[in-house]
Amino acid sequence: MKDLIYAFLLGRGEAEEDAFRLAQSIRIFGGELCFNPIWMFSPRAEKDLSETARQQLFSIGARLVAFDLDPDEAHFPFAAYVTAAGIAEGLAQGGTSFLALLATDTLILQSPSMFLL
Fold it and tell me: What's the predicted TM-score (pTM) here?
C-alpha cells in the first residue's frame, strides 16, 4: 500500500504543460515522497495525446487515467475536475492512506509530508 497518491487533471495546451511541470516538481523536489504514484486524469485517451505528451508520461512514470465526460456536462466549469476526483477516489479506495488531488497551477518545492495528515 502506498502512503500517498498524487492525482490531477491533464488538460490541453498550457494546462497540459502545467500538469507536466507539477509532475516534474514532484519527482525532483518531493523528497521521500518523490517516487509515489502520479495519476493524471484526462478525457482524452493515450492515443489522442501528442507523442511528446506520451513520452513525458513515460519519463516521469505517471499513470494516465482516461475517462468519458458527458458532452452535456462538459460546458460546466470544473466538470472535468469533479469527474476526475470521483474516479480517483474510487480507484484509490483500499490502495492508499492518502490521495492528494492537486490543481495543476501548483508546484512542489519541498517534500509534501504535510499531505500525510
Answer: 0.90
